[in-house]
Each structure stands twice: as structure tokens, then as C-alpha cells.
């Protein structure tokens, strides 16, 4: 059985499997690991490192023609989709809840495809959880980016040239990315406040040394599997007012609030941005799903009335070495469910396999995606 690793497009520096995972794949009984030439180069993982680990460097054509399993991060281009073979297995992080239309071409190609962003948030799935790994990278990098753009220090300083007050950071959404952003901002010496709609987030925020800003009346649902749900108009209004008050004193806002499969909640309104001090920075990690901030432009850094607004939702690409290493570990742990003694075994009774499968014999297996597609 052969596994192939494809190179990502020009805007992505990561690679789906790093060289140090190759020996473990071979041990799993996979006979050959094929790597598209230059796949890991931008992540600091050269072809020679893959060869030393026991993989073969080949062309993209060979990856498509010879692999039983193809691994990737982002969705395939139209040209790549056309090169898939019937019965091939494709694994990546394709974000189908946000873009369900990507499923149809996979059905047409006759492939069995798994999207790792659909993993259930269970203890057993934790080792494969690419969303958590990449959110960790994004939360960390968001704070570094903000610190870089801010015309102020993060820590407090007492110097002969005067006392410098610590920066104030407001984190919106205290999930995996938000908690990592809190920890990173605290390490840099900032004073941190955070909001979330899930009550469970409060304790985690406090344990990281940040203040939790309470807004009463948030809706929670046990059926949402630990995720947030859409809020009432009344709550949104109250939350916007609270965010407005706290933003006036914040030097940095890091937005991470998301609702799976929906537009990100709009939390920082234009008048709130305009009430911030000139030189303040907003990093909006929800930019690709519409943004938490009204003036965010996806994929761009803009200055709105003196406030820098960074709309980069693919920060893991800016820390490609470790982001690839983490993605690779997650991918390997997922592959262990599919490969037994070198043979592919698809057990759709397994909740993780069923939850992540977006294409098999022309059908969507994932219940969660089926519900979203049914509207
Ligand atoms: P996410 O990326 O979907 O959202 C980020 C955060 O934004 C969440 O904390 C969410 O509550 C918050 N949010 C959404 N709407 C909001 C609003 N209007 N105002 C303020 N905040 C809002 O979330 P995530 O980081 O992927 O984590 C989702 C859940 O999964 C969390 O409960 C997390 O602890 C849990 N989790 C479990 C596991 C596991 O057990 N395997 C792994 C990772 C995460």
C-alpha cells in the first residue's frame, strides 16, 4: 500500500506530513511513502530529509497515479481533482461545513475523502485534532503579530526614563486559540481580559491569569458538542455594548469567536474600532468566515482611522515548521485508524471515521455535514 504527500499551493508553507513521521508510517505497514518534490521545502523540511527517513521524492503525477492514500492540508485545485483516481482515499482539512460545495466534485471523482476538521471533540479524538493544533499556533502567532504592530511595549517597565504601563489586551472567544493567545500575551507581560459565551470558559480564563468579562444572558446548548451557538439579538446588543466599553481602554483586541459552519459572530462594530486609541491593533482570526470585527478585510492588513486591523486567518502558514509537525502527528494518529498491518480497513462503525467522512461511494457519511447540507 502506498501513501502520497502532495505539495500545497503557493500561499501555504506547511506540509501535511513531516519527515519524522515517515518511519512511523513505514512501521504501520505502509510499503511506500511518496512525496511530491519540494512539498516540505517552505516548512524547512527538504526533500533530502524525507529521503533519509525512507520516503521517495516523485512528481505530482506519480503521487496521483501510484498512491492509495493521498494526504493534503487544503482542498484540491480543479486540476488536482481531475487527477484523482476512483477508490483513492484523500485526507485533509477541507472545511466542508463552511463550503459544502466542495463535496460534489469528490463524489464525482469516486474518492473516499476525510476532512479532519469534522473530528468529534472527544478524548479519543484529541490526538488527531488538527483544529486544536492549528488554533494553538494561530493564538500564539496572533499575539506576536499584534506586539509587532503595536507602537507600545507589552510588559511594564520601570526605568530611569520613566515607568511604562503594561499593554491591555482583550481576547474575544476563549476556545483553543483564545486561551493560547491569553497565555502568550500574559507571558509577554500584558494585562489580559477575555469574553466568551460558554460558562466553561470562565474558569480556564481565570486559571491563565486573565480577567473574565461577564455578559449575562448567553445561550448555550448541550447538543452543540462544546461549541458555541448563535446568540439572541438582545444578547448581541448587550455584548456589543460591553465590548465597546472594554475596547476603549484596550491596546490590542484578538478576535477568535467562531460558530462551526456559520458566519463568525460580529462583535466589534465599526464605532467600537473608531473609539480605540490610535495605534491600537486588532487581529481577527475569524476573517475567513466573515470576521468578528466589522472593518476586517480577509487576507489583508488595513489601517482604519489609526487602528491596524489584521485579517489573516491562516496564521499557521506563518509558523510552518511546528504547524506541519503538529498536523503530521495528528494525521498519523488518524491514519492508524484506517491502516491495519499495511491494509486499508474502513470501519464506518467507528465514530471518528464516520464523523469525518465527507465522500464514500458518492455519499456524505458525516451526520454533521449532512445536516448542514440539508439546511
Ligand atoms: P471555536 O474555534 O469554534 O470558537 C472559538 C471560541 O469562540 C469558543 O470558545 C466559542 O465559545 C467562542 N464564541 C463563539 N461565539 C461567541 C460569541 N458570540 N461571543 C464570544 N465568544 C464566542 O472553538 P474551539 O476553540 O474549537 O473550541 C470549541 C470547544 O471545543 C471548546 O469547548 C473547547 O474546550 C472544546 N475542545 C475540546 C477538545 C477535546 O475534548 N478533544 C479539543 C479541543 C477543543
Description:
Strands 3-2-1-4-5-6-18 form a 7-stranded mixed β-sheet. A 7-stranded mixed β-sheet has the order 11-10-9-12-13-15-14, with helices on one face. A two-stranded antiparallel sheet has the order 7-8. The chain has 13 helices and 18 strands. Helix content is 34%, strand content 17%. The longest helix is centred in the middle third of the chain and has 20 residues, at 130-149. It has helices at residues 22-27, 47-53, 60-66, 78-83, 103-109, 130-149, 176-187, 200-207, 233-248, 270-274, 320-338, 351-356, 367-374, and strands at 2-5, 32-36, 56-58, 69-71, 89-92, 112-115, 157-159, 162-164, 168-172, 191-195, 211-212, 252-255, 281-284, 301-304, 307-310, 339-340, 343-344, 357-359. The model has no long low-confidence stretch (mean pLDDT 95). The protein is α/β, with parallel strands linked by helices and 375 residues long. Nicotinamide-adenine-dinucleotide (NAD) is lined by residues 121-123, 125-126, 129, 131-132, 135, 172-178, 195-198, 201, 226-228, 231, 256-260, 265, 267. The site of nicotinamide-adenine-dinucleotide has 32 residues, from helix 6 and helix 7.
Topology, element by element:
Elements: E1 2-5, H1 22-27, E2 32-36, H2 47-53, E3 56-58, H3 60-66, E4 69-71, H4 78-83, E5 89-92, H5 103-109, E6 112-115, H6 130-149, E7 157-159, E8 162-164, E9 168-172, H7 176-187, E10 191-195, H8 200-207, E11 211-212, H9 233-248, E12 252-255, H10 270-274, E13 281-284, E14 301-304, E15 307-310, H11 320-338, E16 339-340, E17 343-344, H12 351-356, E18 357-359, H13 367-374
Helix pairs in contact: 6-7, 6-11
This protein binds nicotinamide-adenine-dinucleotide.
Nicotinamide-adenine-dinucleotide is lined by residues 121-123, 125-126, 129, 131-132, 135, 172-178, 195-198, 201, 226-228, 231, 256-260, 265, 267.
